[in-house]
Design brief:
CATH class: Alpha Beta
Distance between the termini: 48 Å
Helix content: 40-55%
Mean pLDDT: 95
Number of helices: 12
CATH topology: TIM Barrel
Order of helices and strands: EHEHHEHEHEHEHHEHEHHH
CATH superfamily: Aldolase class I
Radius of gyration: 22 Å
Largest sheet: 8 strands, parallel
Number of domains: 1
CATH architecture: Alpha-Beta Barrel
Length: 294
């Protein structure tokens, strides 16, 4: 039986702090055929007041009531939901609401207090590995050694923010920097874990290719409107974050899901078998050249 890739639609900051937009995006992810929608939690008490995106982050902050509303809405339309907590407080909200699944962001693989709380209170784990060296990934995996449902995601944490935004401008991760061979490295290092890929390139080619290289989970950012936030940024208008540049719109999200399912079919099952057509042709092809006819 062929493996079915789990597809996570990363909403992140692309709902622009508006709950109605968040609901619409959940619906679009479901229509596209995604399995999970994901939101990033924020805790403004832990964000430096001089952070260049402080005001923007404040507009995106989801409190416990809003988290509960998103969980309820996702449940009603039939799609799983995933959150990334940034602090013990936000992780506590999730636990108190009965949420069992959790994503550990790349930035927090060294945040031991948060990791310990997550380990002790959740059942299904997604670990993103952007910026991490092998020893750091091994340490997190060891902390979750008694947990059965752990997915390790290859990730390159090149977001257009902070000094990278200043140096390179508003652009997504270059395809040549995705380094998908690291999926194979992770599969060899952690054969007992599910390995996936969290994408920050523009478009859908790289995540589709990642499935061909063995990724069992794909996480892809998406947005309802890619152009407007980019134009606003370029024209120094209303700031709408920088995630949109590495996100796809619903039509491309749907195409990505379709092509991933196609790749799954092409890959087939992990067993050695001959096709029905081969068996029809086997005797004919092996018998048509008789060799020495003397």
């Amino acid at each position: 039986m062929k493996k079915r890739t789990e597809i996570v639609a990363e909403i992140g900051e692309c709902f622009n702090g508006k709950m109605n937009t968040a609901y619409e995006m959940i619906e679009e992810a479901k229509k596209a055929g995604c399995d999970v929608v994901k939101f990033q939690l924020l805790d403004m008490s832990e964000v430096a007041i001089n952070d260049p995106e402080y005001d923007w982050f404040a507009s995106l902050e989801l409190d416990k009531r809003k988290i509960d509303q998103l969980v309820d809405y996702s449940s009603r339309i039939g799609i799983d939901i995933l959150f990334t907590p940034v602090s013990v407080k936000t992780a506590e909200w999730m636990y108190e609401l009965g949420i069992k699944n959790v994503k550990i962001a790349s930035s927090f693989v060294n945040k031991i207090e948060l990791l310990e709380y997550i380990r002790d209170h959740f059942e299904k784990f997604y670990v993103s590995t952007g910026m991490a060296d092998i020893d750091e990934i091994v340490r997190v995996d060891s902390m979750l050694s008694d947990k059965d449902d752990v997915t390790i995601l290859h990730c390159v944490s090149e977001y257009p923010t902070g000094p990278l935004l200043q140096q390179r401008g508003l652009k997504a991760l270059n395809e040549e920097d995705a380094h998908l061979a690291m999926i194979t490295i992770l599969k060899n290092l952690f054969p007992y874990r599910r390995i996936g890929y969290s994408d920050h390139t523009d478009g859908v080619f790289v995540p589709i290719l990642a499935v061909g290289m063995g990724a069992e989970v794909i996480e892809k950012h998406f947005t309802l409107d890619k152009r407007t936030p980019i134009e606003q940024y370029e024209n120094q208008g209303t700031y709408m974050g920088t995630d949109h540049v590495l996100s796809v719109e619903p039509s491309d999200l749907k195409r990505m899901v379709r092509d991933i399912r196609r790749v799954e079919t092409v890959k087939g099952d992990y067993n050695w078998k001959r096709s029905e057509g081969e068996m029809i042709l086997k005797d004919f092809l092996r018998g048509r050249y008789k060799g020495d006819r003397n």
